[in-house]
Structure formats: C-alpha cells, structure tokens
C-alpha cells in the first residue's frame, strides 16, 4: 500500500501512461495507411467514443456522413470501424468484395454462452468452415422442411388462422397487437425448431418469449452501448448483468433438445430442424472438424429465434400501424384480397403473383419501417478496397441499410409511406435494387424466404378478416420509429372489426 503514495506514484503513473499510449498507437496504426477512409480524429484509448451520442446513434453518425462522405471511419476505443452508406459502396463491399467482407467482429454476447471453436451458431460465426456448414444446413432445412409432412407454408397458414381467432377474441375492443403478433411469429420458429406450435397461453411458451424479449427488447442505453461496442463486454461483471436472460433461454432450449433425443424415432424422417441436426451430430461422431455438436445446436436454435422473431413481428406491428394511418391503402388491399382470394379461402403464397398492390404494400412497410437500420456488423477478413479506399483486415464494417431504404436518389418520397414506390406505371410490382432490408451478399439474411412468407400470409389473412382503425377517442399514433436494438413503431392500440 505504502508503495503507491507520494513520490513512488509519479513514475508508475508515467510508465503506465506511456505504456497505454504505445499500445494505443499500435492499435491506431491502420489509420495512417494511405487511402484509409476519412473520419473524426480519435483521442488516445477512447477513440471517437466521446464524440458519439449513444442515445441517438443513427443521428450522430448521420452528421459524420454529411461531413466525411459515404465511406467514413471511426475508432471505437481500439476497434477500427468503417461505415458504408449508399448503394454503390454497399454493393461493392458486400457483393463484389464479398470474399473479403463477410467475417464478423469477435463481438458476440454468445462468447459467454458456450461459444467455442465448434459451437459458433450462425449469426456471429466467423467467416469460415463452421459458418459455411451451419449456414448451408439452415438454408436447406428451411427449404426442404416438411418433406412428406406439413410444409412450412402450411404451418404459417395454420398459425395465421390462430392469430385471426385471437384478434377476433378481442371483440372489437382496443388492444396493442404486438404481443399476439410476437406469439404467432414465435410459433412459426417453434414449428421449425420444436416441430410444434404452442397455445398462446402455454406457460412454457410465455417463458420462452419473455426471456427472448428480454434479450432483444431491452433498450437501456447500457445494452445499446454494449451492442455497439461489444469490446466492453470484456469488463468483468458487465456481461453477466446483460446476459442473465439469454442464459435462461438456453436452459429452455436445452430441455427441448433433451426431449427430442428421448422421443426421436430413427426409422422416421426428422420431425424438425432439431431432429435433422441431431442426425448430423450422429453422422459427425469422430470428426473433430465438424460443427455439428450439441452445444452448437443450442446456439443455432437460439440464433434462429433471435434473428427471426422480433424482426418479423416488429415489421408486422409496423404494417398494422400503417394501415391505421392510411385507411385508403387498407381499403385497396382489401379490394385486391376480395378480388383474388375472396372472403372464404385462406391466402396462399401462390396468390402473391396476382396481388401486385398488396405485395407493394408489404415491401413499402419494410422500407418505411426500416427495422434493422444498421444491419449486423461485418468485418474484413483481409485487406480490401471499397470506393477507392483501402480497408485493412480486421476492420469492423457497419452497413447502413437505412441509407439505401431512404435514399433520396432512388425513392420518390423516401420519408413517407408510399406503396407506389414498388409499382410501375401499369400497376405491376417492381423492386428497386436499393430495397435491401435483408442486406446482401454472402451474409444475406438466410430467413428471407420464410420472413416473406410470414409477412404476406399473416398480413393478407388479417386484412381479409378485419378492418383496422384507431380506437374512438384516441389520438392518431405517430409513425416515428423508436430506436432500440431494432426500430419499432411507437406503442399504439387498434380496433380490429370483423369485415
Ligand atoms: C422481416 C424480417 C427479417 C429481417 C428484416 C431480417 C434482416 C436481417 C439482416 C439485415 C441480417 C444481417 C445480414 C448481414 O450480415 O449482412 C440478417 C441475418 C440473419 N437472419 Fe434475418 N431478418 C429477418 C427475418 C429472419 C428470419 C425469419 C430468420 C430465420 C428464421 C432469419 C435468420 C437470419 C440469420 C440466421 C442471419 C445470419 C446470417 C449469417 O450471418 O450468415 N432472419 N437478417
Ligand atoms: C444511415 O443513413 C440514414 C439515411 O440516409 C442517415 O440518416 C443515418 O444518419 C445514416 N447512419 C450512418 C451510421 O451513417
């Protein structure tokens, strides 16, 4: 103790400071490379952390874009970050240079949840063998799901009927639709992973969703900061503080897997993704390279819930809000439904081709809602070049999807809800290239086909059965998004009146 007082303290402090500055210089060397993207000047150690407003990340970064251009750099403590805006830069980085830009920063909260060389899940897996194996598995399971059994479309259609029944049970009284929409979407993932749906009041299901919601919807600034700067998760104690929810979630998934193992009939085809995965684990016994391990099954299932649940349900919450605010659009969708599907038969994916207006509305909901504005961070796996700038290996890339969805050069009315963005002069559906809510390239959202199916079937099914309106006496809700982990609509209530 006595050592660190008075005169002894000074040299120690100087030595520590010099050491920190040297380490800091090493970390910031990359910035001195020729043609490194411009950006605000970082201070030692903290980089640009103090220059950013964490309560309003998208805004404070927007200022930087105006100052430095479409491709600019930031220093998040010791992590070099490059932000990409606009179709040209994003397309060049993700598609043309996909081989260099498809890694993930080693950020994952999962590192604290049993993440290891053979258990990396999908979303945050580094660009390599384990990711490729699991991505291929998820994509093909989604595609082939239900061979000889119920197809994924049948699951979604049945769930849509349950969702409508739950809306009808509100008997025209005002309610917030988010909880029911979340349950319906949750059941679609459960059908994929658990091979079953849950009643909306099933206690196990409620716990599953609650834990999942705690994980995704926590909008405290602490969580936002950690999300932006996962480096901070290394601070002792902080990780366990934000991770208690995910741990509980893993316990539930673990129980589900144990039950599958007991009830698996090897003579039958797999009932769901979990069975298919356990078959692969069996096949991979003795292969030290394989990522088909039971620990990884837990992470893959958790990833599917994490990536597929709140994204899709938040988009549907946007869809109904926008129908409240645009009764004319709602009416036109209903007219198209009546004409093409009628009032009796449930909607099918095949109907979509004959419903350009409804298809345009669903796309415009995604464009306007812009639920994942900054996508999921990428990282360069080797030195690369984008728009003439050199980006060294190990740089975190933030892809501003919002800059595409709200691009003033592409969209007639970028900041208004305007389904005509997706219709040509003849009323046919068209999709501008800047429509990239699922990102692009090798890391493109692998759930896109499922998400498209859910958005179309849930939306048309609800509008076929109900008309939606702002409850009498309540003010018009606003259509300004609320920034959290995702961008969600402000809380609102609606009345669902049977047609
Ligand atoms: C409207 C709904 C959805 C939106 C807007 C959305 C958006 C995204 C975005 C922006 C990414 C990041 C892509 C990148 O890194 O460049 C992503 C990745 C991913 N999504 Fe989705 N998603 C949705 C629904 C789903 C669904 C339903 C599932 C699966 C059930 C899913 C599974 C995944 C997975 C596994 C990844 C990681 C892919 C990888 O790293 O290789 N998503 N999604
Ligand atoms: C992303 O683009 C949007 C729309 O152009 C802009 O408002 C926002 O500030 C941008 N964010 C970043 C991080 O550049």
From TrEMBL:
Functional summary from the UniProt entry: Cytochromes P450 are a group of heme-thiolate monooxygenases. In liver microsomes, this enzyme is involved in an NADPH-dependent electron transport pathway. It oxidizes a variety of structurally unrelated compounds, including steroids, fatty acids, and xenobiotics.
Residue ranges of the TM segments: 6-26, 297-325
EC number: 1.14.14.-
Compartment(s) where it occurs, according to its Swiss-Prot or TrEMBL record: Endoplasmic reticulum membrane; Microsome membrane; Membrane
Keyword hit for Iron: yes
Organism: Orycteropus afer afer
UniProt keyword Iron present: yes
Pfam families linked to this entry: p450
PROSITE patterns reported in the protein's UniProt record: CYTOCHROME_P450
Family annotation (InterPro entries): Cyt_P450 (IPR001128), Cyt_P450_CS (IPR017972), Cyt_P450_E_grp-I (IPR002401), Cyt_P450_E_grp-I_CYP2D-like (IPR008069), Cyt_P450_sf (IPR036396), Cytochrome_P450_fam2 (IPR050182)
Family: Belongs to the cytochrome P450 family.
GO biological process: arachidonate metabolic process; xenobiotic metabolic process
Protein's UniProt name: Cytochrome P450
GO molecular function, one term: oxidoreductase activity, acting on paired donors, with incorporation or reduction of molecular oxygen, reduced flavin or flavoprotein as one donor, and incorporation of one atom of oxygen
UniProt entry keywords in alphabetical sequence: Heme, Iron, Membrane, Metal-binding, Monooxygenase, Oxidoreductase, Transmembrane, Transmembrane helix
Entry GO terms, CC: endoplasmic reticulum membrane
Gene3D superfamilies: Cytochrome P450 (1.10.630.10)
EC category name: oxidoreductase
Cofactor(s) essential for the protein: heme
Binding site for heme: 445
Gene transcribed to yield this protein: LOC103197747
